[in-house]
Specification:
Elements lengths: L3 E5 L6 H10 L7 E5 L10 H13 L3 E2 L3 H10 L4 H8 L4 H7 L4 H4 L15 H11 L4 E3 L3 E4 L14 H6 L2 H6 L5 E4 L4 H5 L8 E2 L4 E3 L9 E6 L5 E5 L5
Parallel strand pairs: 1-2, 2-3, 5-6, 6-8
Antiparallel strand pairs: 1-9, 4-5, 7-8, 9-10
Helix pairs in contact: 2-7, 3-4
Length: 241
């Protein structure tokens, strides 16, 4: 049995923060069960490096779940259309992800409209990472806890939920979740849940929901929580350093 079950979410290409946080909490893959709640890519400059690190952690026994940004990435690159490409690249930070694999602005240019054609992006590392992301689970469940990227719809179990809800849901879950198990989730920065733009700490809802997305890529912090003890850890993202 692990001494600690540790959860981290929404790294968003900030590999250096993940490494700092793991060092800060004294993570030991032999003793600890690490659960990563998704959104490893986009917006941050180290998305490729972050996915590589996540794969290393999984090889050591960590559990990694899929987030909505991994879903956006797959939809854009696995044969998606123009709208999938724009949604990822233009609106959700996909450009930073592809740049981390070494692709240039020129390589990422596309002609929109009737002549849309997805760029040919040749990268052995990217293909290996996409194969890993395709196989990620959407939730992890124990006797008392559900770990998931975004949340669980009220009145449903994680197994019964629409997969898109598990990685996209927000207010309906925040306000209406009524399950018996405590849900550990990311996706929504805790500053919004606290109603305080300067409060990036772990959020505890009255209805057994625990939000841990500290908005690290937006200048907040990367959070971790030890499930058994309730102890929390964080590293600040000092954009000036």
């Amino acid at each position: 049995m692990p001494k600690r079950t540790l959860a981290i979410s929404d790294i968003h290409g900030e590999r250096h923060l993940l490494d700092r946080l793991l060092e800060h909490i004294g993570y030991d893959p032999v003793c600890d069960q690490l659960v990563l709640l998704g959104d490893y890519v986009d917006r941050g400059a180290e998305s490729m490096q972050t996915l590589e690190r996540v794969m290393e952690l999984c090889a050591e026994g960590a559990i990694a779940l899929k987030g909505n940004h991994e879903d956006l990435m797959l939809r854009a690159l696995d044969g998606g259309g123009e709208e999938d490409w724009k949604r990822w690249i233009v609106r959700n930070g996909g450009t930073a992800t592809l740049e981390s694999y070494g692709f240039t602005d020129k390589a990422l240019r596309v002609e929109l409209g009737e002549n849309y054609r997805r760029p040919e992006l040749k990268s052995e590392i990217l293909e290996r990472h996409l194969a890993f992301v395709r196989d990620l689970d959407l939730y992890y469940e124990t006797d008392s806890f559900i770990f998931v990227h975004a949340g669980v719809p009220p009145g449903l179990t994680a197994a019964e939920a629409d997969p898109s809800d598990l990685i996209w849901i927000r207010e309906e879950f925040h306000r209406g979740y009524d399950g018996d198990k405590t849900v550990i989730f990311g996706h929504t920065p805790t500053s919004g849940l606290h109603g305080d733009p300067d409060n990036h700490n772990v959020y505890y809802g009255a209805n057994r929901i625990v939000g841990i997305d500290g908005g690290a890529v937006f200048g907040g912090q990367l959070n971790a929580i030890a499930i058994e003890s309730g102890e929390t850890f964080y590293v600040k993202n000092d954009k000036s350093s």
